[in-house]
Model the fold of this input.
Amino acid sequence: MLWKLLVTSVAPYKSLLWGVLVFQLSQSIANLYLPGLNADVIDNGVATGDTAYIWRVGSIMLGLAFVQAGCAIAGVYFGAKLAMRVGRDVRARVFGRVGTFSENEVQHFGAPSLITRSTNDVQQVQMLVLMSATLLVSAPFMAIGGVIMALQQDVGLSWIMVVAIPVLLAGIGAVISRMVPHFRRMQRRIDQVNKVLREQLTGVRVVRAFVREPEETARFAKANADVTESALLAGRLMAVMFPFVMVVMNLGSVAVLWLGASRVESGQTGVGALTAFLTYLIQILMSVMMATFLFVMVPRAAVAADRIGEVLETESTVRPPAQPIMGMPTPGTVQMRGVGFWYPGAEQPVLSEISFTAKPGTMTAIIGSTGAGKTTLLNLIPRLYDATVGQVLVGGVDVRELDMDALWSSIGLVPQKPYLFAGTVASTLRYGKPDATEEELWEALTVSQARGFVEAMPAQLDTAVSQGGTTVSGGQRQRLSIARALVRSPQILLFDDSFSALDTATDARLRAALRTAVADATVIVVAQRVSSIMEADQILVMEDGRIIDRGTHAELLETSETYQEIVSTQLRAEEVA
Done:
């Protein structure tokens, strides 16, 4: 997966890749010629006292040094630019793929893992691209070129390279093969750290309310220690690698000087040639050592690329239709025909044989015990999930055949847990309709009973809203979420237990305002309080994923024992209060 990801990511930037190749090769060629010229100066200039030759060749060496420095700077610049763009593109691809996921895929990977894959894993691949652009061209070229140039200086010492290079490669390969499992384990444990930290930040109030700080601190410490353990194991292997490289390099240098001295004394080679051979040997071994930096990164980047590949290759279970239908014969109508739904891996269905019709200008309420499948049923309408069996129709068209944008633009959803994005009150309300006027915003705030507290804010519509809406209360957050849906003026309004955080008086005023403001819309409400749905045109009573009774409030009071039990329980609770 690593090489596939690199090829697809680097392919659009051929000009940058050519820049890296040209400048890195130019730098390497300059490096290879400098020791040979130095040998000529020693053997043909210094030995003979030819000052003019020394100045002439020395000037060439100085020019090559400047060329080498310039090419090195340019090569690193182009390599860094290439790596940054690859990282940007891979992050965008991962984010784009995650944006197409249904709830099934998000729950399969988990939010902490998706965050790690979008950040840390992409960074590992990005660093590999940078190191490859810096070393992958120059290191092999320097190693091969160094061997050729060294043989031109003294073939008799070549056996030192024949021994040193394979020993070096064998040692590095043995270390790297043992590092891969540690890197794979490390990435999984980073996921766990993110998961624990995310839970603790999100549930900080619960942690403090139950005085669980010591336990949560110990839980994070364990996850942190697990990552540290994996990192230390990989680090110890890395710590073995570089001393091993230095030992081989230094032993090779000693062997060259020890054996070369006798060859200089016998006249078989010159001092300059011996110096050049030693320089080339060091260059060769340095190239291998530089390549070890790259080899060290490959295992971890390969693990990261596999994890990124899992995201990129996962298709959403909610797929856009091949030939989408744009129009709706009966706009605003919602109908379910024999719908059933199983969560992946579940043994029992969450929903079974669900059938009902909701028409424009009517309110359909869904009530039942916790776990009856109310929220799951509501999520099938905007295709957060797809029904396992049966049909869900919106506007007279099966949602699996309807154009996704046409479907979503006709629906306004107020989720069970209202979430507000960071920005201002105005940007929050315009989330579904960017061109909404201030009059439309105030009208939606009036209907949702949020106008009063927004007008009391210092900057009113320009008041800052933090991520998640933590700067406002739960009831205010819920009312802003309702207003956000109303601004769109959708044909279908879905309320998933959206009035639970409101007091009874505010709830009553909101429902009265909704009857007028959305008189032509199809309203479907999931509720826990009977008082919120007493005026609904039809009430669906659910139990164990099935609709067991349906009718108006008055009808159900006479015919449904389950509904009677719910009503009597809530009335008793109100009387006690």
Residues 573-577 have pLDDT under 50 and may be disordered. The two ends are 62 Å apart (CA to CA).
